[in-house]
Amino acid sequence: MGRCRGNAWWQGRFRGCGYRVTAGREIILDALTKTDKHLSAEDIYLSVKKACPGIGLATVYRTLEILVEMGLVLKFDFGDGRARYELAESPDKRANHHHHLICTSCKRVIDYTDFIEDEVELLRKTEKGLSAKYNFDIKNHVIQFYGICEKCRRK
User: Fold this and answer.
1) H/E element holding 143?
2) How many Å apart are CA 48 and CA 58, to the nearest integer?
3) How far is CA 95 from the centre of its chain?
4) Same-fold call for 1-89 versus 97-155
5) What is the CATH code of the structural domain delimited by 97-155?
6) Strand locations in 1-155, DSSP E?
7) Which residue in 129, 32, 135, 23 sits closest to 86, CA to CA?
8) Using a CB cutoff of 8 Å and minimum separation of 24, what contacts does 137-140 make?
9) If we measure between CA atoms, which residue out of 145, 92, 153 comes closest to residue 115?
């Protein structure tokens, strides 16, 4: 199995955090790079098992926790009993920030990126206020909205 040399955007982070770049870590990051879905550890395992038959599910779980700790991967709970993962930033360094709309009926997750100016200003003020009030240096935030999607409402 060859190394994923096209993913140099994250390799410096491993050294900076004191971790080695391993084939298993590379292939898991590669799987997350190639999708826009919110994958579970099991989804990732099934995807990488084809290219790396020797990898085990426990290794995938451990690796994902390391990647979350390093800030390369975000872990989400969408209320379906399975943790979901996605890259914290896009490989080409474009803004990857988005919020989630989660249907409580069909469990569909919609990435919401088309923020209007009022939303951006409200979040900026909220972060600034919270930072000052609690003397807290905010680096990121996660917002999830729960409701019923249009498809489920029509049923």
Assistant:
1) none
2) 13
3) 13
4) no
5) 3.30.1490.190
6) 73-77, 83-87, 99-103, 109-112, 144-147
7) 32
8) 140/88, 140/97
9) 145
Phi, psi of 109 (to 5 degrees): -115, 125
Structure confidence by residue, pLDDT tens digits, 107-153 = 888 888 777 788 888 888 999 999 999 999 987 787 888 899 999 99
Structural contact between residues 36 and 84, judged by C-beta atoms closer than 8 angstroms? no
Q: Which of 1-15, 21-35, 115-129 is predicted with the least confidence, judged by mean pLDDT?
A: 1-15
Cα angle 1, 36, 71 (rounded to 5 degrees) comes to: 75
6: CB partners within 8 A, 6+ apart: none
Under CATH, which number does the domain 1-89 receive? 1.10.10.10
Q: Which residues contact 9 (CB under 8 A, 6 or more apart)?
A: 91, 92, 93
Contact criterion met (CB below 8 Å) for 109 and 38: yes
Tokens linked to 108: 């569909």
Reduce the DSSP state of residue 54 to 3 states and report it.
Answer: coil
Q: Delimit the domains of the chain by residue range.
A: 1-89, 97-155
Residue 66: is its pLDDT beyond 70? yes
